[in-house]
């Protein structure tokens, strides 16, 4: 019998312990690999010349990579804890610390190599299907199968390095203590949660201050940039941790004091909760974080996906907008307008046209528009300004315009009547538009730009028309500026679908990791629980009563993280509610409902399987 | 004068933590080569701590332990591992078999760690297996065999590298009376056949009566010792009397 034989048998004969970890690892590597296959696709350059898509894909695969790092370190430390007793036996049989480390290292590497190879093989098998999905999302004609040597090599190397580092690192965590501690690991008592009111208050305060900073003085936030978000993220993690652990401690104490503590199975349930408080709290914490990541990933990405139409309209208000500068030759203008209108007449169900004009200080990019020209645009409510009044309209999406700059241009002071933040023309054309009465407009001495705007019915479906028009009518700086929300919408939808797709894959990874952690936790605690319940059954606990205790415990492990994540999600959404449409809340509610259904289902399945193992075997 | 294999001087062990507790308060003890000694005493008297300190798995607070002229607590990790492999064999109450390995693999474990050639392994295994009569369970996993069989497997693992000192902690604690008899007979014959020195902790006077000498512990100190005479029954009675005197004994029909 060789040393490697022991290593191999340790895994093969304990495979149910490792299976969930193995599958989640395979899944992470698989997603990483598939992202790379897409990123390194030979057709990528032609589809996406500025290669933003490829970079995004590579960036996302590195998020997967970093996440895998954390997940694998966590899992290996958890396995090490489970193996402690076996390690003690090996030690008294005469294994040196070096041999123990070597054994654990080889075990890890064996799982790692199998996982990497499995993931790559599965990846190669499903890559045609995956590329077909990508092809549909990208709306690319040619995105077929290829031999992804680059992706294979990179996945192999990067994950081998990852596992190598993590295995080397975790084996250092084998307790350097005496063998007795290793041998007695299975009977030593678990730590119970210690009250930590100051840590709780401090963490909440720090997070609250950091979040307030965001609202109160955005300047500081901007100067700290990414650093700020990292700090917020870390302090949030701490706060959630303390809120959860202290919350569980508080709840068990309350339950113990309540009058129903000694009724039925409450005593068992609550004391169990207290005894395993620490490990339960850790699992609930990890699951909450992972579920929150799942929810945020799907809903934020979905929200961006959902708002594309409105977002596009906010920056480019018209289906087609043709702005003719003074230097534009009259014949050219006539030709372009004729072409556009003929095309629209022939190819669309119906459209509206608006003719307008504005004057501009080209240097400061401040525009002036007469009241009647403003009304002619049709995007806004008709408005009638009285004498000596003016109205302000934003020129850039998202930045409030100055309402005072007009005073630099006019001799007499006009009365400010209001501000419109919705754009009337494409974003970035001017900083601001001042709407003034017609007679004042006539006195302003700046070059005048003519505006031809068209709004097509059912514009989101009119990409062909946009292509036809844009092929013929093109922007010529200093002469004419052509923009179309139809083609912008098309590009945006394309980007957002990819983001949605990526977010979906990421949330699947987080979900699988969460499931793996829960599975491993239940699997490890099963032995001890079985022994405990066999004992209690001897003194007269019915299976029905065991079921009630176990049901409550499992429900706690599964639904506390779920509710916690959902509440946090809605807090996040509520705080950014202005940026979201009401429909989105509706959709999130439905999405959460689907997740809830999934969780109830898996809860029922887990409960049944767990009870069966607990009672019968 | 017989050769001393285990020499213990002023052994102290304190447990510090939330409750400080002195488990061993200064023990002097010597075990001769090829001697079979049982350690007895009431619960909490420090028997197991005493054995664990000798087993090199629990570091003493004070005092010295010399096994075969070496102090295991002065060895480096590698040397200690080698020392355990060559000098010591362990048998526990709860067997401590590795559940992922078969009985055969469990027995071979110490040799594997020592990089012994497979030919040598086979010869040594055959010897032990015949002696212990566990041939039919060699390919089984640890959860497929009975308590008595588990303990036999554990004993096989403990003696396969022919240790100079075999340590047993309540080896019969989890066994039924039939298995107790067979396991103890086995210890007896290992002791006789391989000339192995044996130190065994037990609370069962019947089990202790297999030994040549019984030492009694109370409150972390050696209290008394009695030697076996020719008559095993009389020895048992003496053990019983001492235990009754200690307050930890109970009547037991031989």
What would you say this structure looks like, in words?
The complex is a heterodimer of chains A (617) and B (254). Among the domains of chain A are: 1-189, no CATH class; 317-483, no CATH class. In chain A, 68% of the residues lie in helices and 8% in strands. Chain A contains 20 helices and 8 strands. Chain A has helices spanning 3-12, 15-39, 44-47, 52-92, 97-138, 149-171, 179-183, 197-216, 218-224, 226-257, 266-275, 277-306, 308-315, 330-347, 371-377, 438-443, 463-472, 485-538, 543-575, 582-615, and strands at residues 320-324, 351-361, 366-370, 389-394, 415-420, 432-436, 448-456, 480-483. Chain A is elongated, with a radius of gyration of 32 Å. Chain B has 254 residues and is α/β, with parallel strands linked by helices. A 6-stranded mixed sheet of chain B has the order 5-6-7-3-8-9, sandwiched between helices. In chain B, helix 3 (103-113) packs parallel to helix 5 and helix 5 runs parallel beside helix 6. Residues 248-254 of chain B have low confidence and may be disordered. The chains are: A alpha+beta (617), B alpha/beta (254). At the A-B interface, helix 1, helix 4, helix 5 and helix 7 of A face helix 2 and helix 3 of B.
